[in-house]
Amino acid sequence: MELRTHIRDVPDFPKKGIVFKDITPMLGNPAALAHVVQAMAAKFQGQGITKVVGIESRGFIFAPPIAIALGAGFVPIRKPGKLPWKSRRQEYGLEYGTDTIEIHDDAVTARDRVLMVDDVLATGGTMEAACKLVRLLGAEVVACAFVIDLAFLGGAKRLDVPIFSVLEYT
Ligand code: AMP
After folding, report:
1. From ligand 1's centre to the CA of 118, what distance in Å?
2. In a domain? residue 4
3. Element (H, E) at 66
4. What's the Cα-to-Cα distance from 36 to each of 2, 24, 58, 87, 102, rounded to whole Å?
5. Residue 2 annotated as catalytic
6. Residue 157's CATH number
7. Catalytic residue among 2, 78, 89, 95
């Protein structure tokens, strides 16, 4: 499957200097979408995953079908102020300024083995903060899975668990 042909580079989006990986052509192609979800789920079959955490917003596209394939639950990590129940928050640094993500207090427990999912690994700041939140609640982070690893940005170095990506750009 020539997946790369279904990923579109959009220069200077959302701001100058960033080459945005637009996955919407891949999402719209039935064979490509099925291939990506199946590849991500297959890698983690039989590892006792109980929860699949998706990071808002594009992590929400992939985490639920992977959770269903693994017989696990889905947990959303959201942008601030979106979750209705008691939540924990984690701030993390961006190139300019900071960002914050949140998780419900009761979303995972010490009995959970968690797979973390997002669409793109860039600098790794978002996923590093997401892993902190899950561990704060006592759960075990088993691995992180991405559709795309922008390996030239070195995000994997910030993550202390195994990472899996369907596509790597070097
Ligand atoms: P980072 O925290 O730098 O690893 O950024 C990860 C988050 O930003 C992911 O949720 C991605 O959806 C998004 N992101 C960062 N860089 C890109 C890019 N070049 N193309 C598409 N999404 C990106």
Report:
1. 9
2. no
3. helix 59-70
4. 11, 13, 14, 31, 27
5. no
6. 3.40.50.2020
7. 95
Q: Of 90, 119, 105, 108, give the one whose Cα is nearest residue 52.
A: 108
- Ligand 1 atom closest to the CA of 92, numbered from 1: 2
Statement: the pTM of the whole predicted model exceeds 0.90: yes
List CB contacts of 42: < 8 A, sequence separation 6 or more: none
Taking every pair of C-alpha atoms in the chain, what is the biggest distance, in angstroms?
Answer: 44
Domain around 115? 43-169
- The verdict on the CB of residue 125 being under 6 Å from ligand 1 is yes
pLDDT tens per residue, the chain (170 residues)?
Answer: 799 999 999 999 999 999 999 999 999 999 999 999 999 999 999 999 999 999 999 999 999 999 999 999 999 999 999 999 999 999 999 877 899 999 999 999 999 999 999 999 999 999 999 999 999 999 999 999 999 999 999 999 999 999 999 999 99
Q: For residue 20, is it within any domain?
A: no
Cβ(74)–Cβ(52) below 8 Å: yes
